[in-house]
Amino acid sequence: MSPSKLLSEMPLHRSICSKLEIFAEAPTNSYLFYGPSGGGKMELARVFATSLLCPDGGCGSCTTCKGVLSGNHPDFSFETSSNRRISVDDARALVRKAHLSPNSSHRRVVMIDEFDNFSDVAPIMLKTIEEPPLTTVFIIVVGELSPSIATIVSRCVTIEVPRAEDDDLTSFLQFKYSIDPHRARDLIDAAERDLDVIVEMLSDENFERRISIWENIYSSRGGSQSLLGRTKAVMDFLDDIVAQVIERRDSELSKLKEMQSKGSPPKGVVKEVEDRYARIVRFRRRSEIELGARFLLERLKKEAFSNISDQLYANIAYEQIVATISNLLSQLRFGSDEQMIVAQLIEVGVKKSPF
Ligand SMILES: [Zn+2]
Description:
The protein is α/β, with parallel strands linked by helices. The protein has 3 domains: about 5-160, P-loop containing nucleotide triphosphate hydrolases (Rossmann fold), CATH 3.40.50.300; about 165-205; about 205-350, no CATH class. Helix content is about 60%, strand content about 10%. Strand 2, helix 5 (about 90-100) and strand 3 (about 110-115) form a beta-alpha-beta unit. The site of zinc ion has 7 residues, from helix 4.
């Protein structure tokens, strides 16, 4: 089989990928990926699955690879407990799937995410994971190797996936999202190297709508809407932007608390989820204010160079505005009051044009 293109080109966790390339040549029954959230274990596990099913060892471009990466291929079963509790029936269905012959590939891959939450039903799957049919490979993904899954762990080849290094993450973001290194650094710092948080931060919804809201905030200079009214409109808009994130946080937390009342998962998990969402919310709000500032700068730049005939003077005037706004944004980054910064930004935007 040819070497996996996807694994060899993966910029994250190079040394682990080299190991996976070797495993893919003669795979054993069951693999278990473990490590902290946001380390990239799911990305690696999925790419590993393509290398097991693709006729070219994980080319990344055939229908098999695309199917596996999007979770839609007849020989690839993906189970997760992220939104529900796994019942005995679910576990039995999974065992039946593992015993089916492959459909179009030469083997079948059964991938189970958040296996930590399967511990109640793990005994049902134990024998199959230990000795699956020759054509089936299990890929199990867990946060940590807790004692409740010790028996399963002992049956698998374990692969530890820690948080990625900054340089790896920067290359990954350039490779997968074409993000320039400077912005990548900014994202990595804000997300504290948590890849899940970075991906969440990148989902940039309704860009056009957001721009038009900012346009409106600064518009009709000297109009009826007071500075206070405009500031409040921005604060409401920021709440609106993070509302969905908060909704997701709450549903994840209530699910965790329900599980905790039944004895799992470990206590630290709730705090980890709270911290992760707090970072996403802070970043989303800050990014939005930065977007509003960039929009304002663009507009003032146009005004300066069209209203002032002396280009040198226009440049000096514009540089002053840039300095004022950059200063506001750096205060925001260092934790100054959000509302105060927004008010000052709007003041720059709506006061009589300096040009
Ligand atoms: Zn392929």
